[in-house]
Specification:
The complex is a heterodimer of chains A (about 350) and B (about 260).
Chain A lengths: L46 E9 L5 E9 L4 E5 L6 H8 L7 E6 L8 H7 E4 L11 H9 L8 H7 L15 H13 L5 E5 L7 H16 L3 E5 L3 H7 L2 E6 L2 E6 L1 H9 L2 E7 L6 H4 L4 E7 L2 E6 L3 H11 L4 E7 L3 H11 L11
Parallel strand pairs in A: 3-7, 3-8, 5-6, 6-7
Antiparallel strand pairs in A: 1-2, 1-4, 8-9, 10-12, 10-13, 11-12
Chain B lengths: L19 H16 L2 H18 L15 H21 L1 H10 L1 H6 L5 H30 L8 H25 L3 H19 L10 H7 L3 H13 L6 H21 L4
Helix pairs in contact in B: 1-6, 2-3, 2-6, 3-6, 3-7, 3-8, 3-10, 4-7, 4-8, 7-10, 7-11, 8-10, 10-11
The chains are: A alpha/beta (about 350), B mainly alpha (about 260).
């Protein structure tokens, strides 16, 4: 049975919190954040992908991907088009058979235990299709009947704002409503893990924000989420950890902040000081990693709460900082750098 | 942090999805069949129309030369074949191919329900329409045109069942190999006309040149007409047409299962 993997409900995670996470973890397998994040590193992973390989041609598919997803976290999969993101999640949900490697979902094999895995894994497909004449209420009730312990379709429709559209046929739904229905179908089986592929592609900014909020609600209900995206702001906002897949291989795996810091060297602060001062005023601060002088300006690089630390130190030394500029390294920077490091810019996806 | 080993279960305890799911699916497919009534129009409305129109022609109620059947009764097997062919070659394959091409089958394959359920539900709704068409034609024939099936009801039912299976097998093979709905439409139509020609829709079979008559006996709809005609005249259908129909059902059925593409 799969009972040991109780879904984590919000606010009842294990009390044993590790405290050794100060900076970005350099290891390939970064540990999920316990204190701030929603993952729980003390529990065994709910999904384990080990040396997955699934090739469609010489340069498409997944070559070698390994990672683990822990209960309750939002795990992001980012990377260029055709890098193998969708292939990876399709292998997890059992929709594709890997060439080699091990996939473990709640102790089950997606191929051998087909129905059992699908029972606890809800899937939102990149392009979801339904019969054009099926109605919203019908398809939700139908999909509910496929699961042993489905969630209440009426409640789900309420939560997703689909109730007033329950009698609308699929072909008459707008893009945003189709997306919401697609999310509803991923959740109707009351899954422990939800795989969401390109959740907000094609949505307007308001609909994106609404969808993000919805995902946070789902996460708060204790569902582990695997999110495939190519929007860095989305990954930064929603994900506890992200894996960057490039050309079928794992290029990096860390928290969004960790990835950003790793590639960009933390955040930067620039200012014009009111008087000259010794560098040691700043270099002695734990948050500061480097101090440079660029003309009249001072450029400080560091991590953590850099701005507060620097301003306080300057105040204590009776120095006024003028024209302050703060730039923080974002996941976007990290993405561009890491992909750039990989030495190429990929063309459009070459999926079969 | 080390990766915990996860004990792998050897025997899945919940290997089967709940059975009520299939019933729900059949219900939904039935609703969809009413909403997009291609099958209902072709298979049910059309034969009813034939009955009403032919009822307005008194000459058709006279006995045909050399048989105990009325002229119209002679035409009933051909009309049954027309309905079955339209359902099996048009109404059945096109939605199946559409579901595969647009990704509906893929969406289903992500649930505990096997995608074969969707296929089975669509075959069932079309079978139901085909049976309704046969009942309308035979019932109408009995009510208005003096068709008597009672003496060889079993022989007639067997013939109808075999042609149903043969035509559905052919329709499923079309669905199996066609990549796009338009291709399925073309394939279905290309098969429809010659099969109906040999069944005698446009000219009585007896009027064909002997070589064509001979070829015809190896086509499923011609065999069906032969078998049903003899049942209507009170004889158990001869072995050859029954075997021809069974052969089509088996060969095309196996080919369809073997060649079916899920993606």
């Amino acid at each position: 049975m799969i009972t040991p993997y109780m879904p984590r409900r919000h606010g009842q995670e294990s009390t044993a919190v590790t405290t050794n996470i100060a900076g970005p973890a350099p290891a390939e397998e970064a540990v999920p954040r316990d204190s701030a994040g929603h993952g729980s590193a003390d529990s065994p992973p709910v999904v384990r992908v080990d040396r997955l390989r699934k090739l469609y041609g010489p340069s498409t598919g997944v070559e070698d991907v390994s990672f683990s997803v822990y209960p309750g976290e939002v795990f992001g999969i980012i990377g260029p088009n055709g890098a193998g993101k969708t292939t990876t999640v399709e292998c997890i949900s059992g929709m594709r058979v890997p060439d080699s490697g091990v996939i473990d979902v709640l102790g089950l094999d997606p191929q051998a235990d087909r129905a059992a895995v699908r029972e606890c894994v809800g899937v939102q497909l990149q392009e979801s299709a339904l019969p054009i004449l099926i109605k919203v209420g019908e398809v939700l009730n139908l999909f509910a009947s496929f699961y042993r312990q489905p969630t209440d379709a009426a409640e789900l429709m309420d939560a997703l704002g689909l109730t007033e559209h329950r009698g609308t046929t699929f072909r008459r739904l707008s893009g945003g409503l189709k997306q919401r229905l697609s999310i509803a179908l991923a959740l109707i089986g009351n899954p422990r893990i939800a795989i969401l592929d390109e959740l907000t592609t094609g949505l307007d900014p308001q609909a994106r924000r609404d969808t993000w909020q919805l995902i946070e609600h789902v996460r708060d209900r204790g569902v582990t989420i695997i999110l495939v995206t190519h929007f860095m702001d989305e990954a930064e906002r929603l994900c506890d950890r992200v894996v960057l897949i490039d050309r079928g291989k794992v290029a990096a795996l860390d928290t969004p902040a960790g990835l950003a810091a790793r590639a960009g060297g933390g955040s930067h602060l620039q200012f014009v000081p009111s008087a000259l001062f010794a560098d040691s005023v700043l270099t002695t601060l734990p948050a500061v990693t480097a101090v440079e002088h660029v003309g009249p300006r001072v450029r400080v690089t560091g991590t953590g709460d850099l701005v507060t630390a620097v301003i306080h130190a300057l105040e204590a030394a009776h120095i006024e900082a003028k024209d302050i500029q703060v730039e923080s390294a974002t996941l976007d920077d990290a993405y561009v750098r890491l992909i750039h490091h990989a030495g190429h810019i990929r063309k459009e996806a070459l999926r079969p | 942090m080390t990766i915990h080993a996860i004990p792998r279960r050897s025997t899945p305890t919940r290997a089967r999805p709940p059975g009520q799911g299939f019933r729900e699916l059949v219900k939904v497919e039935a609703k969809l069949a009413v909403r997009a009534p291609i099958g209902l129009v072709l298979g049910v409305l059309l034969p009813t129309m034939f009955l009403v129109i032919f009822n307005a022609i008194p000459a058709l109620k006279k006995p045909a030369a050399g048989t105990t059947l009325t002229l119209f009764a002679q035409y009933i097997p051909v009309l049954i074949c027309l309905s079955l062919a339209l359902i099996a070659l048009v109404s059945l394959p096109i939605p199946l191919v559409t579901n595969r091409q647009t990704g509906v089958l893929r969406r289903f394959s992500a649930t505990p329900a096997p995608p074969s359920w969707l296929l089975a539900a669509q075959v069932l709704t079309n079978l139901a329409m085909a049976v309704v068409a046969i009942v309308i034609l035979v019932g109408g024939g009995a009510l208005f045109f003096g068709v008597h099936l009672a003496p060889q009801l079993a022989g007639f039912a067997l013939s109808a069942l075999l042609v149903l299976l043969a035509m559905f097998a052919i329709g499923l093979l079309v669905a199996a190999i066609a990549r796009a709905p338009a291709v399925a439409g073309v394939l279905g139509t290309v098969l429809l006309y010659p099969l109906l020609f040999f069944a005698g829709l446009w000219a009585p079979r007896q009027d064909l040149a002997p070589v064509w008559q001979h070829i015809g006996t190896y086509t499923p709809l011609c065999a069906a007409v032969q078998a049903m005609e003899s049942a209507m005249q009170g004889h158990f259908p001869p072995a050859q047409p029954l075997l021809v129909m069974a052969g089509y059902a088996v060969v095309f059925g196996i080919a369809a299962v073997r060649l079916f593409r899920w993606e």
